[in-house]
Specification:
With about 250 residues, this protein is mainly beta. It has helices spanning about 1-10, 105-110, 120-125, 130, 220-235; strands at about 25, 35, 40-50, 55-65, 65-70, 75-85, 90-95, 100-105, 135-140, 145-155, 155-165, 170-175, 180-190, 210. It has one domain. The strands form two sheets. The protein has a twelve-stranded mixed sheet with strand order 9-10-11-12-13-3-4-5-6-7-8-14. Strands 1-2 form a two-stranded antiparallel sheet. Strand 11 and strand 12 form a beta hairpin. The protein is globular, with a radius of gyration of 18 Å.
Length: about 250
C-alpha cells in the first residue's frame, strides 16, 4: 500500500511541462517558465477496487512568480516553497497545531536530496511527457481546452487531464492491481476565495522557528519526532517534496 502511494505521489516527476510558450511567461534571471499566479483546491482519494475507500483529503495550492504554497484543508499545516534570487529553492513548513515553523535552506534541501525544480513546484508536473505518455484527445475543463494523456505500465494505468493555460493538472488518475488513486482539481481562481486557508505571516508570528539542520540535536523533541514520522511514512519531504524524484 505505501509503495503504491509513493508511486502515485511521485507521478508528477514523470510528466513534462505541457504549457506552450504562448501561455507561460519567462523568468529572465533563470530562463524558467513562470506560469500565471492562481489559487487552486484539490481533492485526493484512494479506493480499493471493491469500492471501499482508503483515504480522502483536500488541500489548496497558491502560486505566484516566486512562491508556491500548499495548505491542508483542515488548517493543520502549510508548506511555503520560495525561489531564491539565484534560482534555488527554500522551504518553510508551518505547523499550526504545534505552533512551530521549520525552515529548510537550499543547502539543507540539497543535503537531503529533496530540492525540486521550480518548474515542477509551480505546475506539479515535470519530465519528458511526450516520450512517456500518449495523447488521447482533448476535453473542456475549467473554461479551457484540456489535453488528455494516458500511460500503461505493467499493472498500472495513469490518465491525466492537463490544463495548458493554467499549467496545472485538472485530474490525475492512477489504477494499480488493488487501488485507484485520483487527484482532482475542484476549484480554480485568480486568488484565494473567502474561507480558504490564510497564508499571512501574521498568523504564525509567535510560533517557535526551528532550522531543519538542528533536527539531529532534537531527536527527543516530540514535535521533531512527529515530523520525521510523517515524512518517513509518506516517503517524501512534505506534500510537494516528491517532485525531485526522477522516474
Amino acid at each position: 500500500m505505501q509503495a503504491f502511494l509513493r508511486k502515485f505521489l511521485g507521478l508528477a516527476a514523470t510528466i513534462a511541462a505541457l504549457a506552450p510558450p504562448a501561455f507561460a511567461a519567462t523568468d529572465t534571471a533563470t530562463g524558467a517558465s513562470s506560469p500565471r499566479p492562481l489559487a487552486a483546491r484539490y481533492s485526493q482519494t484512494i479506493t480499493r477496487h471493491d469500492g471501499r475507500p482508503v483515504s480522502e483529503s483536500s488541500w489548496y495550492l497558491y502560486r505566484d512568480a516566486d512562491r508556491v504554497v500548499t495548505a491542508d484543508a483542515d488548517g493543520g499545516a502549510l508548506e511555503i516553497w520560495t525561489r531564491t534570487a539565484d534560482g534555488r529553492v527554500a522551504l518553510r513548513r508551518v505547523f499550526h497545531r504545534w505552533h512551530r515553523i521549520v525552515d529548510y535552506t537550499p543547502e539543507e534541501l540539497d543535503s537531503r536530496n529533496a530540492a525540486p525544480r521550480w518548474e515542477a513546484l509551480s505546475s506539479m508536473l515535470t519530465g519528458d511527457v511526450r516520450a512517456r505518455f500518449e495523447p488521447t484527445g482533448t476535453t473542456e475543463s475549467f473554461g479551457e481546452q484540456a489535453l488528455q494523456l494516458q500511460r500503461r505500465r505493467d499493472e498500472q494505468v495513469t490518465s491525466i487531464v492537463w490544463l495548458p493555460q493554467a499549467a496545472l493538472p485538472a485530474r490525475i488518475e492512477q489504477s494499480g492491481d488493488r487501488y485507484t488513486a485520483v487527484l482532482s482539481l475542484s476549484a480554480l481562481a485568480e486568488q484565494p476565495a473567502p474561507g480558504w486557508p490564510s497564508v499571512s505571516e501574521a498568523d504564525w508570528a509567535d510560533y517557535q522557528p526551528i532550522d531543519a539542520t538542528d533536527f539531529g540535536d532534537m531527536d527527543t523533541d516530540p514535535f521533531v519526532q512527529e515530523v520525521e514520522r510523517i515524512d518517513a511514512a509518506a516517503g517524501t519531504l512534505g506534500r510537494l517534496g516528491h517532485l525531485h524524484v526522477v522516474d
